[in-house]
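Q: Is it fine to ask for two folds in a single conversation?
A: Yes, each is treated on its own. Send the first.
Q: Here.
A: Result:
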Amino acid sequence: MNGWPILLGTFISSVSQVMLKKSAGKKYSSRIREYLNPIVITAYAMFFAATLLSILAYRSIDLSAGAVLETSGYIYITLFGLFFFGEKPTKRKLLALLLIIAGTIIYTLG
């Protein structure tokens, strides 16, 4: 299974989500600057690159494998939320992440 493009695309997508959240927290002088600024444009370009990586990956892996690998985004977003925004995960979120990791490992080994 060659799933690295899915994992890379999911990581890139997660980074771009952080960039959009950071940009949304800023004040802009006009509505157009809110949407047309370097951070937002770069984030959407990264989303486009992540989409291309997904297309590339799905040419060589099963659809079910891609869906399992894309759940890594929940892990990235939780870690980014903790490090960049100080969001502390609840016990429920941590349990959910452990289940995601366990499911990914079980799928990969099976």
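Q: Second one now.
A: Result:
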Amino acid sequence: MGTRVYVFTGHYGSGKTEAAVNFALKLKKTEKNVALIDLDIVNPFFRSADAVELLKEAGIRVEMPLFANTNVDIPALTGNMAALIRDQEWNVVLDVGGDDLGAKAVGRYSDDIKSRDFECFFVMNPNRPFTKDMESATKIFDEIEAASCIKCSAVIGSTNLLDETTVDTIIDGLPLLEEMAKSKNISIAYHAITASIADELIEKHSEIFNEDNVIRINRTVKRLF
């Protein structure tokens, strides 16, 4: 498989940024050139820029908005981001800001993204209030697609209750994820699973979960409130 652009979209609090960061770390195990671009210029509370040292130590290139992680909260996208998205030598993971407002940032790069092989993921946590049922989740999904000018090609299940997440939590979230994927005629590409229960989940439900489709989530993004 050649290089690709992987776009991570989703509602605020969906676990999108953690999924993007940990996916980049997973991808780096099999791919030489992996980069992560922090396109979240909307929400200062959860940023992949928080994980920059971890990513760099793993050999992952990181591009982030100017002023990210400083007390000057007027982040701006850089020219390096567009050049990197177009560069066929790189696998590029894009962490996009939440909802349609954040998705507008990736919209400016939509032509560059669509000129390459790409996947656009809708990261969804059925336990969040704005994606807890089909009506609300579909509204968010459609708004993100419209704002980004990119069709989502797959769902990423990010079912969790933070530290209270159990195997049953993940299983209980499956029906809504499957209904969403079916309604949009797309697949569930990955499941972002709390690392502490990933082994147990794979062992108990190997017919659904495996090392290929599980993104192990180790929390890397700090809360600023």
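Q: Anything structural to flag on that second result?
A: Two points. DSSP finds eight helices and eight strands in the chain. Strands lie at 5-10, 34-39, 61-63, 91-96, 118-124, 154-157, 187-194, 214-217.
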